[in-house]
Design goal:
Shape: flat
Radius of gyration: 17 Å
Helix content: 40-55%
Number of helices: 3
Amino acid sequence: MSEPGGGTGDEQERVESRAHLLPEEKAVGSDDPEAQADAILTESDAREDRNVAPDTVLEHRTSAQTVTPIEPPD
């Protein structure tokens, strides 16, 4: 089912989650954080889907699932 803004409930939650401004964004301000979040996520989705082979499966990982960098020896 679609939400009033045209997105699904999951998409609206995603936008609302991203609409919480980062410290850098708070420093410069935003007239409409939700519109800004929607634009950022739309652009991100477009970049993610570009040049993907039809049979490719995209993996979505969180930063908690990344490898801890190994410090080089001094």
